[in-house]
Amino acid sequence: MKKLLLALVALLLSAQCFAQVVTTKGVGSASYNWVLSQSDKDKALKAAQVSAVERYFAENGEAESENFEAIQPMVEANLEKFILSTTIINEQNIENLKKYSVSVRVDLNVAKLRSTIRGASATAKAAIGERSQLVYVFVGREAASVRSYDDRIVKRTEIEGDASMDQSKSVKGTEGEAVRSNKVSTTANKRTSESVNVKASAKVETGGSTTKKADDLSYRLLPMNNTKTSITSVFSQGGFQVADPEFVLDDKDIKAVNQDFSTGNDLAPSTIRAVVASLRKAQIPLLVLATLDVGIPSQDNATGMQRVAVTVTGRVLDISGNLPREVASVPAVQYFGIGPDNASASGKALKDASQAAAREVVSRLNAAGVH
Question: Considering its fold, how many domains does the chain have in total?
Fold first, then answer.
């Protein structure tokens, strides 16, 4: 029973992550001349609703905000199609300034907003035959081993010394002789005195250096079969013709890509040249590369279940010209998955992150006018 309850909670959280209805807040205000009228209130309410929509797209990144600007006049003219419900949270009327403000909580029809953005994009306006083909390579991975190095410390000591010595010595003595009958006797007395004065000084300098070496990190690649359908669906809905990399890249290319991403974050020059050559041979102009790094599971404080973070980075190359050029990039973004155990949490996080990465790529391509 407990496992069933945890699974239901995970499903609920999953639905909230990529729900088609999202709750957000906005604030709007309106100035009036003499007396606050209902039309002034309606004006402020509309401004608050538009602010809520803008806030949603702003929270989803620069590309999403730019895409929203293309449809903002349409949204403002038809708010009832995109906002399912509106709740007034607070109202404030500042009479001395003749200003009325209202804050609201609205439920956005995200599915409608996204379909409207897709309809206004350059990809949607292009004829079906003019829409670009696209190949994506999404690599899921987790840290397999990390080798850390101790600091290398070098110490150096320099000593400079200076000494001086003064020495004096004196000898005094007396000698005598006595003759008695046939005997001669002598006497001698000698006294020596010596003094030494030594002065010394020393100067000591110490120093050294500490050398740090970065960790050696290797990755274990994770299967992405369960996420392919959802990734392809996002790109297809975005207006692109998606080609499966297994049908475009040969086995040697795929093996080289996996090998490079298992040891670092970039492809070797020879690997990227081979991949580009294969795509050009198939007359495919767009290549999407993304890495999804799965973190270490931890316990979620709110649910008590396992929580896994996935960090996504990606880039899009246009290889239709003489030289490939980067037309869009996805900076490191982190997503989370929650499940009753480590495996389900990791799988959930990987799937959600790959879908989010695909949506971000489509948004940035739309914003750049690439179709």
Answer: 2
